[in-house]
Design a protein that fits this description.
With 434 residues, the chain is of the alpha+beta class. The protein has 9 helices and 12 strands. Strands 1-5-4-3-2 form a 5-stranded antiparallel β-sheet. A 5-stranded mixed β-sheet has the order 7-9-10-12-11. It has a two-stranded antiparallel sheet with strand order 6-8. A hairpin with a 5-residue loop joins strand 11 and strand 12. Helix 4 packs parallel to helix 5. The longest helix is centred in the N-terminal third of the chain and has 55 residues. The chain is rod-shaped and about 155 Å long.
Length: 434
């Protein structure tokens, strides 16, 4: 899944740029197009209102009614000379400001702009003229462009455009990175990812192409390493088998302690070869079988069936907790941790504890050995590394046990930590995300 920080930042940046562009474009359209149009429309309507008032005053009384009818028929403007009960105008838009200013300019006197809501929204102008007061009204529907409404529509349409464009651009820009992230995680877990489609911007295409090339080279390197180690193990085991055969054919006249020493050395060589092969395969998780287990029950059965169960104490949780994992991998890690703990505890009790949180389970393996210097706690995970002073060199093993543990944990998204206990010994912490 794509990191939220990159996705959100990219979307925020694109949306901000598009929104700024929409606001600037809306301001330009509002100032240079809609405002002049509204001012011109208000000027025309104000000229018609002022001309109607002046014409009505100058007409003979007997022709004024015909003029009022013709005015309403032709221009949809009503004119009354009797006092009307209208409310002050509640809408204060640029159009009405322009309209009022223009009417006052043409008539040379102050006017009031009123409104009537029944049966529809009408605008009325109270015009004092020739010792008379005229009420000239028109429907709100005949008004020309409304800059405020147009600006609102522009911003709303722009916001929709910003959302659609941002989603498209974010998908176009981030999807290649998301694909690369997924493939990188798979490669880090020992899974061979499929080649990534080389799409998107030119820089992303070059990056994806480089990753695909690197992925191919890594897989070839791993395959060559496995073949090489298998070949070496085969070539070494053949002369070892011949040496075993030769030792078996020796008679009792030869030094039996020397023969037994050679047999032990050959057995150590065989174990070293097997551990080296196990280490080379520790990244291959494609053949593992996964299932849901109850962690408490599993650890209890594991301890009971261990060859040194008498030296192992298990401290369970209050109840069982399920977890989905590969039991074979967990058993292999526990075997290596317990092997180290038992070797360096010198026949003292090793304790296994478990602590379950909603987000992770922690398995503790606590020994009573001599501990590890703090500056070596991470170094011991390196392949073939062995402590020569603070650990028993006679039972130091091949130096691959903890390296295999770390490789398996990294491949499955687990964590392994080593800390020194307060009194003596090491605390190995295996962290399993739920």
């Amino acid at each position: 899944m794509m990191p939220k920080t990159l996705l959100s930042r990219t979307a925020f940046t694109i949306s901000s740029l598009l929104l700024i562009f929409v606001l600037l474009a809306s301001s330009v359209i509002f100032y240079y197009i809609m405002t002049p149009m509204a001012r011109q429309s208000a000027s025309h309507l104000a000229a018609l209102v002022s001309l109607s008032a002046q014409t009505w005053v100058e007409l003979p009384p007997e022709t004024r009614q015909d003029f009022e009818s013709e005015l309403k028929k032709q221009h949809h403007i009503s004119l009354h000379s009797q006092k009307q009960d209208f409310k002050p105008l509640s809408v204060n838009t640029p159009f009405f400001r322009y309209f009022k200013e223009e009417v006052q300019h043409l008539l040379g006197r102050g006017v009031e702009v009123l409104e009537e809501l029944d049966p529809e929204f009408w605008i009325w102008v109270k015009v004092p003229i020739a010792s008379r007061t005229l009420y000239i009204g028109f429907s709100h529907n005949i008004i020309g462009p409304n800059p405020s409404l147009v600006l609102f529509i522009l911003i709303g349409a722009g916001a929709i455009l910003v959302i659609i464009s941002s989603l498209f651009l974010v998908s176009y820009l981030v999807q290649p990175i998301n694909n690369l992230l997924i493939a990188t995680r798979q490669l880090g877990q020992g899974i061979s990812p499929d080649p990534i489609a080389e799409t998107g911007p030119r820089e992303f295409i070059h990056l994806t192409r480089s990753f695909n090339t690197m992925n191919t080279q890594v897989q070839e390197l791993l395959q060559n390493r496995t073949v090489l180690l298998a070949g070496i193990s085969h070539d070494l085991r053949t002369p070892i088998a011949r040496i075993h055969l030769s030792l078996a054919m020796l008679n009792d006249q030869h030094d039996q302690s020397l023969i037994q020493g050679i047999e032990n050395d050959l057995q150590d060589i065989n174990q070293l070869i097997q551990r080296t092969l196990d280490f080379s395969k520790s990244l291959d998780i494609t053949t593992q079988q996964y299932q849901t287990i109850e962690i408490n029950s599993y650890l209890r059965k594991y301890v009971q069936s261990h060859p040194h169960s008498s030296l192992i104490t298990f401290m369970p949780e209050n109840k069982d907790y399920p977890i989905y994992l590969s039991p074979d991998v967990l058993e292999r890690i526990l075997n290596n941790l317990l092997e180290n703990a038992l070797n360096y505890s010198q026949n003292q009790t090793v304790e296994i504890q478990i602590h379950c949180d909603p987000d992770e389970y922690r398995i503790y393996v606590l020994d009573q050995g001599s501990g590890i210097p703090d500056d070596k706690l991470n170094t011991v995970f390196q392949p073939f590394y062995r402590l020569e002073v603070s650990r028993n060199t006679e039972t130091g093993g091949s130096g691959l046990g903890l390296a295999i543990v770390q490789q398996l944990c990294q491949a499955h998204g687990w964590k392994i930590q080593l800390t020194n206990r307060k009194k003596q010994g090491i605390r190995a912490i295996l962290i399993l995300p739920v």
